[in-house]
Amino acid sequence: MLIKKYISKTSNLFAENRLLKFAIVVLAIVELHNYQKVSEALKYQKTVLIPPTIEEKIEISGYKFSNSYLKAMGIYIANLLHDFTPKTVKGQYAAVSQFLDPSIYPEKSKELEYIAKKYWKNMVSSDLKINKITLEIKKKSGKISLKGKRFLYIYDEPARLEEIEIDILYKNDNGLFHIKDIKHKVTNQSELIK
Fold first, then answer.
1. Are residues 76 and 112 in the same domain?
2. Do 142 and 173 touch, CB atoms closer than 8 A?
3. pTM
4. CA-CA distances (angstroms) from residue 188 to 94, 147, 148?
5. What is the pLDDT of residues 4-22, one digit of tens each?
6. Does one domain contain both 153 and 70?
7. Do residues 77 and 95 share a domain?
């Protein structure tokens, strides 16, 4: 950039220098404004997922899960816990452990590992059929309640039919689904082995 406004070269250089300083200041202001707008936009960013097994749009943001996402997660966790074979139970319970809140992880993961070993050792299989899903949603936490029937098999022989209620207490940790607690309640059971 050459300015030839003055007769003296040094005056022209000083004018060029002032112009370049002004341009840098303007660019810095524009960059700061841009940074502020991007930071504001990140607060409202959403992730929209449509996996093959889901028929509805699922939305996850830093502070909110959509109802369809919560239902899908409830079904997924319930199936990992109650729809298994002796060969898959350890892996499925380990997958549930990945969703546990860090505050309960050490205690709950050991409990899940112990239960999985018992099922594996006794050759227990389970089949879950979910009938009803209800949601209780608070600002950053809530409860997913599932009701259904669970068929237990020992050595591939029908052993027991249970009506079961599963409550999954969760929290939204900046867009991550974390399980705070899982409660199981058998409301009715009937022995199938004679």
1. yes
2. no
3. 0.72
4. 28, 12, 11
5. 666 777 877 788 888 899 9
6. yes
7. yes
Q: Are residues 19 and 111 in the same domain?
A: no
Cα–Cα dist 180/53, whole Å: 26
Which spans in the chain are helix H? 9-43, 67-82, 89-97, 105-121
Helix (H, G, I), strand (E, B) or coil at 6: coil
CATH number at residue 57: 3.10.450.230
pLDDT in tens, 117-143: 999 999 999 999 999 999 998 877 899
Between CA 45 and CA 158 the distance in angstroms is 49
Structural domains counted in the chain: 2
Backbone angles phi, psi at 91, to 5 degrees: -65, -40
How many CB atoms within 10 Å of residue 31? 10
- 57 and 38, same domain (yes or no): no
Are residues 80 and 25 both part of a single domain?
Answer: no
Q: Which two tokens stand for residue 157?
A: 């022989």
- Please state, in angstroms and rounded to a whole number, the distance separating the CA atoms of residues 192 and 153: 9
**Domain limits for position 1:** 1-45
- Give every CB contact of residue 41 below 8 A, 6+ residues apart in sequence: none
Distance CA 183, CA 166 (A): 6
